[in-house]
Structure formats: C-alpha cells, structure tokens
Amino acid sequence: MKKVAIIMGSDSDWDKVSPAAGTLKDLHIPYEVRILSAHRTPEASARFAETARDEGFGVLIAAAGKAAHLAGALAAHTTLPVIGIPVKSSTLDGLDALLSTVQMPSGMPVATVAIDGAVNAALLAAQILGVTDQDAADRLSALRRAQTEKVLMKDQQFSKEYSYSEEA
Ligand code: RP5
Fold first, then answer.
1. How far is the CA of 115 from the centre of ligand 1 (A)?
2. Which of 58, 90, 104, 127 has its Cα between 20 and 30 A from that of 81?
3. Is residue 140 a part of any domain in this protein?
4. Helix 134-162 to helix 118-130 angle, to the nearest 10 degrees?
5. Is residue 144 part of a domain?
6. Number of structural domains the chain divides into
7. Residue 107 within a domain
8. Which domain CATH number covers 107?
9. What is the dihedral of CA 68, 70, 71, 76, to 10 degrees?
10. pLDDT at residue 92, rounded to an integer
11. What is the DSSP string of 30-68?
12. Mutate to test the pocket of ligand 1, among 14, 37, 39, 66 (most ligand atoms within 8 A of CB)
C-alpha cells in the first residue's frame, strides 16, 4: 500500500497534527511523520516533495500555522495530492493559516481541511488511497458504519435522558 506523509512546519504543531496519525493507524495505513518548513528548510521541503512518489508515498498531508505556505510549497514540487491542515498557532486563531493554505492560485491545488482538521485530513488521505486500494476502502466503510452506530446510540440515550413531557 502507498504511504501517507504527515508533514508539519514545526514540532510545536504535533499536538494538533497527531490525531491524523492516530486515524491512519486505526485504518492500518502506513505513514511517515516529518518536520519540514516552507520557510526554515525550503530546500529539504522541495526535495521531499520531488522524491515523494518514488519513495512510495501516495498522498501528502501538510500542516502549518501562521503564514502557512507549507502545503502550497510542497504542491509546487509534486503532482501527488496534497492535503493542507491550517494549524491554529497564532494570535489570529488560525484564520491566517487557513487563508494561506486554502487560497492557492489556479493550477496548483491544495485540498484544505478545517482549521486543526487533522482527522478529516487523514480520512481524506485514506479515501484517496482507497480509490485503488480495496483494503483501505473497506476499512473506511467499516469506520463509517461504526460512526453511524455511535450516533444512533447517542440519539437513543439522549432522547431517553433529556426529553420532557407532562403527559402521563
Ligand atoms: C509555522 O509557524 C509552524 O507550522 C508553526 O505552526 C508556527 C510556529 O512555529 P514555531 O515557532 O513554534 O516553531 O511555521
């Protein structure tokens, strides 16, 4: 199976990014975690993206905060799909990172998830791999079924516990 790269701009992003790793692990999808910065290690970032396909990666997840150019900078060096996670790590509550990640110019797409949306980034990466990998697709279906069951159970529980009526 192809691997997913989970790349973050700084080790300080890990708390927000680690749920992506947990989600991929739950789905038995292999991943590598890297710290690469569009601004602090630009050459290493470009090299990583250029060689990612040959290294067995199928999707890149790029998480960064503030002026978050990491996802776009990686996308510029590969035709693998790049998923951007804008990280809330500044006084602007992540809006800076969201706009820096999502507002890519035409010709250079980055699939941007919500601010701190690490779980959805991992699920989207799994869905991309699931286009050609039946095991990944099957595990995603199982996870969806479990998620549905959980909500239905909560619905019953809350309905019983919190509903109110004056009728006998
Ligand atoms: C971004 O700047 C990183 O992705 C991080 O979210 C933010 C702060 O980085 P540190 O100063 O904590 O290394 O590039």
1. 14
2. 90
3. no
4. 140
5. no
6. 1
7. yes
8. 3.40.50.1970
9. 130
10. 96
11. -EEEEE--TTTSHHHHHHHHHHTTTTTEEEEEEEEESS-
12. 66
87: Cβ below 6 Å to ligand 1?
yes
**Domain range for 71:** 3-133
Q: Which contiguous run of DSSP H or E holds residue 13?
A: none
- Whole-angstrom distance, CA of residue 163 vs CA of residue 127: 38
Coil, strand or helix at 163: coil
Confirm if 61 and 97 have CB atoms less than 8 A apart: no
Q: Given the CA of residue 89, which atom of ligand 1 is nearest to it?
A: 6
Nearest CA to ligand 1 atom 7: 65
User: What is the 160 CA–ligand 1 centroid distance (Å)?
Assistant: 46
List per-residue pLDDT tens for the chain, 168 residues long: 999 999 999 999 999 999 999 999 999 999 999 999 999 999 999 999 999 999 999 999 999 999 999 999 999 999 999 999 999 998 899 999 999 999 999 999 999 999 999 999 999 999 999 999 999 999 999 999 999 999 999 999 999 999 999 987
Q: What's the CA-to-centroid distance between 89 and ligand 1, angstroms?
A: 7
Distance 10 CA to ligand 1 centre (A): 5
